[in-house]
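hey can u check if this looks right to u? its 110 residues, i copy pasted from the old doc so theres a chance i mangled smth
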Amino acid sequence: SELFSLCDWYFDINYADEIGSAVKKAFMNNLLVFGFQETLHNRFFTAPEHVYTKETAGKMIERVRELLAEPEKIEECLVNQRLAAVAETPEKYRQMLLPFISCHEKLYML
């Protein structure tokens, strides 16, 4: 668990079984997830543009190098990853639900 807080990237390229929902943990810790089509353990948490085949591993490496050279683009990738998983922050849910709840419930939420 400490490892997830120390890293910025997660590569789902292991052919063995997934250990302890590692991809989900990486996603929940806001790590940028990359993987091979052949080894993905949880496609739900990996943006389609970060899924490569074994044969296109060089393209994955190229993309990682691009992001390392332009780190300001990483946040955009993380946003796209969350959107691909339809993940929202608690604040976004509050904003979406506010119009549908009563005044009393609104006071409780604040």
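The two ends are 31 Å apart (CA to CA).
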